[in-house]
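Batch job 17 of 40 flagged for manual review because the log was empty.
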Amino acid sequence: MMNLTRRALIGGVAASSLAPLLRPLPAGAAAPVTGKQAPGFYRYKVGSFECTSLNDGALTYPISADYVTNVSKDQVIAAAAAAYFPKDMVVCPYNPQVINTGSKLVLIDTGWGPGVDPAVGHVLHNMAAAGLEPGAVDTVIISHFHRDHINGLRKADGALAFPNAEIKVPSPEWAFWMSDDNMSKASGDMMQGNFANARKIFAGLADRVTKYEWGQEVVPGITAVETSGHTPGHTSFAVQSGPARVLIQSDVTNIPALFVRHPDWHVMYDVEPDLAARTRYRFFDMASAERAQVVGFHFPFPCLGQIEKDGAGYRLVPAAWSPVL
């Protein structure tokens, strides 16, 4: 039984009178929502090279009947559902890479550039967030001439986004898209649009474009790897510093949940679909045998992982996010 003394009662009353002052005060207003995502960049090391994945954004779009040209739309929808995409939709990310070799600052592919959709075109913003100046880029290496890889060469006013950079392109890719004969034979709106777009982006740049060959070291430590099929000159890259190596697969596959899992599927963007499928098997057999780290332009950000054989196809094992370099 508790005995209430006069002193205890007075102390209790005093404490209770102070209680409202000790409670946290309400904020007084709801916190405003931010309404935008954090900057998208992620750094990783390849030997002594410091590399940065730059997220250019992602587009979400409906699965059309011809999105995959050699299987039914229902099969594609089922695969997309298994990957937890929005109903009857796919989500396609875009991820250029910056490689700082210590002597060169190299950008591999440039993203969509301005004016396409608010969801994409964020390379320059994310470069700034990562402390990378466009004017400091020494070399821009292009893997192939699809617009999500080259349009970021230009700003909205048409000026060069990387004004001091040498632009390096695959020799067979330049030969294909700059051929008047090939353009005259192009069928379908997409191919005709790709020819027109490539010529618009590279207009007036022939004198500052350097063409490279497959098997060549494009810059020291970055070697061009032939992975044709997606386009006639499509190129991937082996980045090596000391014993460390990463394979940048560019567009060997589009969205990995579909095309790493099903390398025989033909995405509508493949110019030579049968060759593209053979290239996927060849490249992924090499990557899985080496247990190599692989970077994919259309992999989920930060777009690094390993490729592992899985039944008749493969699967992407994403790299763990590292808080330190």
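Reviewer: the log was empty due to a logging misconfiguration, but the result itself is present. The radius of gyration is 26 Å. Unflagging and moving on to job 18.
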